[in-house]
Amino acid sequence: MNKKSREEIKLMCMAGNIVALVHQEMKRVIEPGISTLELDKIAHDIIKKNKAIPTFLGYCGFPNTICASVNEQVVHGIPSKDVILKEGDIISVDVGATYRGLVGDSAWTYAVGKIAPEVQNLMDITQKALFAGIEQMIPENPLENVSAAIEDVAKEGRVGIVRQYGGHGVGREMHEEPFLFNYRTNSRVIIKRNCAIAIEPMLNLGCDEVHQLDDGWTVVTDDKKPSAHFEHTVIATDDGPLITTRVQ
């Protein structure tokens, strides 16, 4: 678990701010009729305008700036001109920006027009789980407390928990140690002062089980029911959890 210097924290906040600007614009433009490739271009232009690098673009061969995951797609959806959002959809937009070598990483799930009440409830529960986890990002806390907080919210809401994917350390690399499970394990990792973790619950309206499609990226729920995904990059400081991926 890599501690960040004061300068690294400053740069991570700047990277996170760029990511937050992307999400501000996603909230404004997402509506029926827009394609996920259009969203990708908008995100790319904002990141480049702010003198940052799209972290996801080219990462292990990923072809785009954002992951755009619609409805039963959990994570890693590939933007396409052929995927046109329609009324009642939900879409998770996951985006990373690298600014002067430091990464900001955040995902948010958006409603496209009016959505079913049970899907809105899923989104509300997942967002609640994110912030419950963030509250536990305190130096010397067991990392397990973050996982437990997420699991407790999910169980109370009676939704499925994605178990094959989770949060992760972040900093000079998008994926650093440790891995963060979204449910209790026997982890003995202790949160260190000034460490950074991307906390990202992925919760499903139905079952826990997911699988990857033949494109090698897109992950979907086995029962084809919707999935929601919310993520912030968070630094554990003496003053409490610092969310870098908010507009500063």
How would you sum up this structure, described in words?
The protein has 248 residues and is an alpha+beta fold. It has one domain (6-243): Creatine Amidinohydrolase (Alpha-Beta Complex). 29% of the residues lie in helices and 27% in strands. It has 4 helices and 15 strands. Strands 8-7-9-14-15 form a 5-stranded antiparallel beta sheet, sandwiched between helices. Strands 1, 2, 4 and 5 form a 4-stranded antiparallel beta sheet that branches. Strand 7 (167-169) and strand 8 form a beta hairpin. Helix 3 runs antiparallel to helix 4 (143-157). The longest helix has 24 residues, at 6-29. It is globular. The model has no long low-confidence stretch (mean pLDDT 97).
Task: Give me the secondary-structure topology.
Elements: H1 6-29, H2 36-49, E1 53-54, E2 66-70, E3 73-75, E4 90-99, E5 102-111, H3 117-135, H4 143-157, E6 160-161, E7 167-169, E8 176-180, E9 196-199, E10 202-204, E11 210-212, E12 219-221, E13 227-229, E14 232-237, E15 240-243
Antiparallel strand pairs: 1-4, 2-4, 3-12, 4-5, 6-10, 7-8, 7-9, 9-14, 10-13, 11-12, 14-15
Number of discrete domains = 1
| Spans of at least 5 consecutive residues with low confidence | none
* Known CATH architecture: Alpha-Beta Complex
Distance between the termini: 25 Å
Beta-strand content estimate: 25-35%
- How would you name the oligomeric state of the polypeptide chains in this document? single chain
Radius of gyration, rounded? 17 Å
Class inferred from helices and paired strands = alpha+beta
Spatial strand sequence of the major β-sheet: 8-7-9-14-15
Spell out the helices and strands N to C: HHEEEEEHHEEEEEEEEEE
The mean pLDDT is 97
CATH structural class: Alpha Beta
Tell me the total number of β-strands: 15
